[in-house]
Amino acid sequence: MIKLNWIHHLHGLLFVLLFISGLSLYFSTTRTWFNELQFPLVSFHLWVSLFYGIIIVFSLRLVFQYMAKKPYIKFFNVWLNISFIVIWILSGLIMYFQGYLPTTIGNGAVTIHGWFTFLFIPWVLIHSAGHLIKIKIPWPPWWRGKAMLPSTVSENRLERRDFIRFTLLGVLFLFIGSGIKWIQPILNVAGDENKRRGYFRIYNVTSDYPRYEDSSWSFTVDGEVDESLTLTMNDLLRLPVISIVDDFHCVTGWSVRNVEMKGVLVKDLFEKHNLTPRTAFATAYSGDQVYYDSFTLPQLIDEGAMLVFEFDGQELVNPQGYPCRLFHPGMYGYKSVKWIERLEFTTERRRGYWQVMGDYDLDGYL
Asked: What are the TM regions of this chain, as residue ranges (predicted)?
């Protein structure tokens, strides 16, 4: 009994940590706040999930033994939790390994993971109200105790009032869960056609975006190069402009397929301006003065890295990195530095923002 009490309290603590960290990852405001605090929220969520899964597996036998003589509501609570936990674990695993799976499966896992989180909120509220502030939920006596089942229930004959009651309860749960989910509007910069291929979740590491007028943005290449170079947007547009259609993948599990991107190859920029780096390492800096990531020279020159200024025939919007961002077709989105202002060549390769803050892979290949 003492062991189960400890398991119950540990379950509650881990669930609260997962719930809060998961919601914080979903909402851009809280995600940004944790980034500014330099707290590795993604890694924290993953490690707590792993520990939670281990606790669940090792406690199931004890829990079901204890439940053998308990009221029906206890069984419902246990099975509801297990069902949601299984769905969260499976969808989370798909999100984690989404680079090995089709895009539609990865995007579906992201959607399911989020929806089931918000749909669980009503039950969390009811369960918490019953335990913490002793609110008496008007459950039927046979549901709260081990009393004999009514004939309509034991014979599976629902009366009209039962049908109406369960229907209204289901609608209420959906309304509360989905209503909370859509309190936070999601920026969808794509048109109707793009909605069918996914949409961009906008992440940033500061609470604001850089604001540029066309005349104020510039891009500089300096450091270990024979001669530094600074280009305005007009200078950039004088270079060969190309369009590619590619998928944009985020390491958190979502993707946008078949995005048309227009921009300038880093290779063409170097060739047209006779840039000769004296080292093989470069760091790309964002105009937010916080974010940066690093590359090798072959990754920038030989693998199709671009300076992009249009998505799907429209110039970038501010949250997407207006007026210009980096894009590498073979790497996750965290390598595509938004609001790029500078490319500095260094004698040693720096670890990027998310390599320091989140232990992300330095190269970020898909």
From this structure: 12-34, 46-64, 76-99, 105-126, 163-183
Q: Is 235 helix (H, G, I), strand (E, B) or coil?
A: helix
Q: What are phi and psi of 166, to 5 degrees?
A: -70, -35
Instruction: Please tell me the class of the 193-357 domain.
Output: alpha beta
- Tokens found for residue 360: 């992300």
pLDDT of residue 68 exceeding 80: no
Going from the C-alpha of 149 to that of each of 57, 162, 211, the distances in angstroms are 31, 14, 66
Q: How far is CA 317 from the centre of its chain?
A: 20
* % of the chain beyond a pLDDT of 70: 77
Q: In the chain, how many H helices and how many E strands?
A: 14, 10
Condensed to tens digits (0 to 9), the pLDDT of residues 162-192 reads: 556 666 666 666 565 555 544 444 333 434 4
Residue from 66, 112, 76 nearest 92 by CA: 112
Peptide bond into 102 cis (omega under 30): no
pLDDT at 271: 95
Tell which residue, 68, 95, 89, has the closest CA to residue 4: 68
- Residues 339/325, Cβ–Cβ less than 8 Å: yes
Reference 293, options 321, 256, 272; nearest CA is: 321
b/e code 9-34 from CB counts within 10 Å (16+ = b)? eebeebbebbeebbbbbbebebbbeb
DSSP state of 99: G
Phi, psi of 242 (to 5 degrees): -125, 160
Which residues lie below 8 Å from residue 137, measured CB to CB, with a gap of 6+?
A: 126, 129, 130
Sorted by where each begins, the domain ranges of the chain are 2-190, 193-357
Tell me how crowded residue 314 is: count the other CB atoms within 10 A of its CB: 13
Q: Of 56-60, 306-310, 339-343, which gets the smallest average pLDDT?
A: 56-60
